[in-house]
Amino acid sequence: MTNKVALVTGAAAGIGAAIAQRLARAGMAIGVLDINMGDAAKVADEIKAAGGKAMPLQASIADRAQVNAAVAQLRQAFGPITVLVNNAGITGFVPFEEMTDQLWDRMMEVNLKGTFIVTQVVIPDMKAAKWGRIVNISSSSAQTGSATMTHYSASKGGVIAFTKSIAQEFGVHGITCNTIPPRFVMGTVMSEKSAAEGKINRDPIINSGPIRRAGEPADIAGACAYLCSDEAGYVTGQIIGVNGGRVIS
User: Fold this and answer.
1) What's the CATH code of the domain at 163?
2) Residue numbers annotated as active site
């Protein structure tokens, strides 16, 4: 995969950082995109210190102009982008009857519209190459539902449907699109903040599946690396649940 260029969104920490580092070890040049430029630069520096190629990029995925500018920087530095991991997103907890239009719209703007924007900006490179890999990080809450997280679960359910539709439309161009819905993963900004605020209780989540431990960013990164490889060329439109068995289908 040494001739591949990958863009990973939300890559400054947690799952996104682990994915960026894992794909770099596979030989890809990485665009480490995040709204937090300082931490994105740290991840890019770690990749380069380990002998890989990476550059930090700053953008809000919900802002098309910012995404266009970041993608143009990555293309100029490393060439066309043929691997995309849509990992960036936000979360939130609010009882349904207290949910405002603004909270709903913001969740959809980032988690669903942002995924749409980045994919639409990058996919021409994949069509031109007649090869592409797209992995969307969704959530197991989209498969089960989650109380006080209706807007989040709905947005991630939209990501799953988006994944299947892209797989249908672009498979003819040699492009695959799959989604990984994790459950609770330790060490991410969202999970640690939610636990600290008492919004989630780790122990019941950990004990809710047959594998009795929390997920780790490396668990998601390993599955993502496979889906981004040549070996996964016959896998598309799939929900690859890396969730300790919370959801078995």
Assistant:
1) 3.40.50.720
2) 152
Number of domains in the chain: 1
Tell me, yes or no, whether 238 lies in a domain.
no
Averaged pLDDT, groups of 10, the chain, 249 residues long: 92 97 98 98 98 98 98 98 98 96 98 98 98 97 94 98 98 98 73 60 73 88 97 98 86
- Does the reported pTM lie above 0.90? yes
SS3 135: strand
Length of the chain: 249
Q: Which residues pair with 229 in a beta bridge?
A: none
Domain around 126: 5-232
Instruction: Identify any residues that bridge with 9 across adjacent strands, giving them in sequence order.
Output: 33
Domain presence at residue 243? no
- Residue 241 is assigned to a structural domain of this protein: no
Contact between residue 133 and residue 119 where contact means Cβ atoms under 8 Å apart: no
Strand partners, 134: 84, 177
